Amino acid sequence: MTGIERHAHITGWGRYAPAQVLTNADLERMVDTDDEWIVTRTGIRERRVAAAHETTASMGAVAGRRAIAVAGLDPDAIDLILVATLTPDYWMPSTAALVKEAIGNTRAAAMDVSAACSGFVYAYSTAQAYIAGGLARHVLVIGAELLSRFLDYTDRSTCILFGDGAGAVVVSASDAPGGGLGVELTTEPQGAYMIWLPAGGAKSPPSTETIARGEHYIRMEGKETYRFATRTLASTALAAIARSGLRPDDIDLFIPHQANIRIIEAVAKGLGLPMDKMFVNVDRYGNTSAASVPIALAEAVDSGRVKVGDRIVFVAFGAGFTSGAAVVEWTADPARGRLAETIRPEDISVRLPVDWDSVDPIPPALAEIMARPVVPGVELDLSDVAPGEPEPAHEHAVR
Ligand code: ACO
Fold this sequence. Notes:
The chain is an alpha/beta fold. It contains 13 helices and 13 strands. The strands form four sheets. A five-stranded mixed sheet has the order 1-7-6-4-5, with helices on both faces.
């Protein structure tokens, strides 16, 4: 490639959400909680749960393939595949390696990015840097999570928050102006044990004891995490906006990490902006960690909230503690989102190992819910997606 093709433009976007819905009413039957508590404290009404045959790689591959279709590329045009996840299929190989094969790419380098819920922003920034450095022309950036298999469905403080899903973008080099602008990434290790998964790593390898203690599940200090998020998100976004030579008023839409509506409201307040500048879908997906920003971005574009020339900001926080923000001047035709329809999940599969029988991956507490029929049409219907008038973000949240 030539030295002048150094602007990084988002040319494709896609999302995938598993069909099965886990509502607050379902959780009421599993733990001591209620819909009103969950909605008031978090804004979450329902979240998606992956089926037994689905994995982080399979969901990421569908979202990734959709993003490639929207970009109008052949899968083999992708030079680098980055998968942001805290729930990889395996410790090794990388989930990105499995995605590469599933999408039919033979050329790309592939690796995972580990920055918890900030993972997509970190991975997107890495793509931007590869393009700016002339190392790649087309980068597929995926955020994919299968959190339901790492949750303790007896712990009401965590199991109500999280959901499964995947989102993706294709970032492409171009000599046209626009695309990726300023980036800010932070890591504050004093928060390292505020959200963590204690066992399974080198410090505490899995054993019957670690499993008996439930150390293979996500643990979280909710209040400390909340404090970090409300302190950091606005300042991280402001730093990225300043690096872009812009002011908060210049931003048309923020795509914040969808962890909690109250945290998103605090960001809007911190930036002195109205809530209609914040895209919100936490009510329908819960916190999908690294998948949340790309799912929200794809929904925002496909629902007409983004037009060519808009300046948008991705901003996220997560375990580490990490945070990240990236400013993008949107240059793609939003109507291309329709091309995602051409990719059907049943046509994409992740190759399984030979001679290895996995145990049933569905957490027992979810088995009954997963066995019930899926309501037809629950999978995101992309056929009627047409850019139109933006809906105020808070209407999603209070619906
Ligand atoms: N239903 C009913 N009551 C509950 C529930 C529940 N699901 N969960 C907790 N409670 C109770 C608590 O036991 C407590 O009761 P007590 O007063 O008798 O002790 C009471 O509700 C208040 O609990 P708090 O923890 O103080 O509630 P808070 O208002 O802080 O809300 C929440 C909790 C929603 C978890 C909030 O702290 C939060 O959103 N934190 C941020 C979490 C987050 O975003 N994490 C994702 C990080 S991203 C990543 O990298 C994975």
